[in-house]
TrEMBL record:
InterPro entries: Bact_OM_lipoprot/Surf_antigen, Gly_zipper_2TM_dom. This is Glycine zipper 2TM domain-containing protein. The lineage of its organism: Bacteria, Pseudomonadati, Pseudomonadota, Gammaproteobacteria, Lysobacterales. It comes from the Bacteria. Residues 103-143 form the Glycine zipper 2TM domain. GO terms for cellular component: outer membrane. The keyword Flavoprotein does not apply. Residues 1-23 form the signal peptide. NCBIfam families: PRK11280.1. It is found in: Membrane.
Length: 263
C-alpha cells in the first residue's frame, strides 16, 4: 500500500514539472506573426534616425521674375517763343475844313502886326510891328491848316503787336515695372524699355539639394536629398531610410538603404 502511494506522488510531481516547462516554453517562443514565410525574423517596423546636420547644395543660375504690371513714365516739356501778330483795323478820321491858304496867313499877320504896334515907340515900334506881322502870319497858317471841321472818313490801318507762343511736348522716358519673384514676393524697378512677360534679375545661388547627415543605429552617415528635412528626425522603415514621402495617393516613398548611403 505504501509503495503505491509513493508511485502516485512521483507521477504527479513529474506531471507538474512538465507543465511548468511547457508553459515557460510557450511564453518565450516567438509568435507566428513574428516570422515570415522563410522562417526569418519579421522586420523591425517604423523607427527614426536623428538629423545631425543639413548642408544646402547651391548652383549659380540665372534669375527671372514674372512681370505683373508696367506703367509708362512720361516727361512733358514746355517752350515759349515770341512772334509778331498783325491785323488790319478800320479807323475813322475827320478831314480838315480848309487847306491852309493865304486867308489864314493874312489874318494872322494883321493880328500880329496890331499886337506888335502896341509895343515901344519910334523905330522900336516899327520893328515890333513887323515881327508881330511875320509871327502872326505863321501862326495863322498853321491854325488854318489844322482846323478840323470837314467830313469823317474811314481808313484801314495795320496794327501789330508781339505775343509769346507756348508749345508743349511729351515723351516716354522709362517704365515702372512691378514683378513677382519665384518665392511669391514682389518688387518694383525702373526700366528704359517696356519689358515682356518676364525680366532678368541677374544670376544668384539657388539651392538644388541638401546633404543630410543623420545618426542611426549608432552610426553617422550622409545622404543627398532634394528637399530639406521637415523635422530633426527621418523615418526608417525596415532598416531603410525614407528620404522622400509619397506625393500622391498610391505613390510609393523613395527609400535609401541606411547601409548604402555615401559618407
Amino acid at each position: 500500500m505504501k509503495s503505491n502511494t509513493t508511485t502516485i506522488l512521483v507521477a504527479a510531481g513529474a506531471l507538474l514539472v512538465g507543465g511548468v516547462a511547457t508553459a515557460a516554453f510557450m511564453n518565450n517562443r516567438p509568435s507566428s506573426g513574428d516570422f515570415v514565410a522563410n522562417g526569418q525574423p519579421a522586420p523591425r517596423g517604423l523607427e527614426y534616425a536623428d538629423v545631425v546636420k543639413v548642408a544646402p547644395i547651391t548652383q549659380r543660375e540665372p534669375q527671372y521674375a514674372q512681370v505683373v504690371n508696367s506703367a509708362a513714365i512720361r516727361e512733358t516739356t514746355t517752350s515759349s517763343s515770341p512772334r509778331e501778330v498783325c491785323r488790319d483795323v478800320v479807323v475813322q478820321e475827320r478831314l480838315p475844313e480848309r487847306d491852309g491858304n493865304v486867308g489864314g496867313t493874312v489874318a494872322g499877320a494883321v493880328i500880329g502886326g496890331l499886337l506888335g504896334n502896341q509895343v515901344g515907340g519910334g523905330n522900336g515900334r516899327k520893328l515890333a510891328t513887323a515881327a508881330g506881322a511875320v509871327g502872326g502870319g505863321l501862326i495863322g497858317n498853321r491854325v488854318d491848316r489844322n482846323h478840323v471841321g470837314g467830313r469823317v472818313v474811314d481808313r484801314t490801318e495795320r496794327q501789330c503787336h508781339t505775343e509769346n507762343a507756348n508749345s508743349s511736348s511729351s515723351r516716354v522716358v522709362g517704365y515702372d515695372v512691378t514683378y513677382r519673384n519665384a518665392d511669391g514676393t514682389t518688387g518694383t524697378m525702373r526700366m528704359d524699355s517696356k519689358p515682356g512677360e518676364r525680366i532678368s534679375l541677374g544670376d544668384a545661388d539657388n539651392v538644388v539639394a541638401y546633404d543630410v547627415t543623420y545618426r542611426y543605429d549608432g552610426f553617422e552617415k550622409t545622404v543627398r536629398m532634394n528637399d530639406k528635412p521637415a523635422s530633426d528626425r527621418l523615418p526608417v522603415v525596415d532598416g531603410q531610410l525614407v528620404t522622400q514621402t509619397a506625393s500622391t495617393a498610391g505613390d510609393q516613398g523613395v527609400r535609401v538603404d541606411a547601409g548604402s548611403t555615401r559618407q
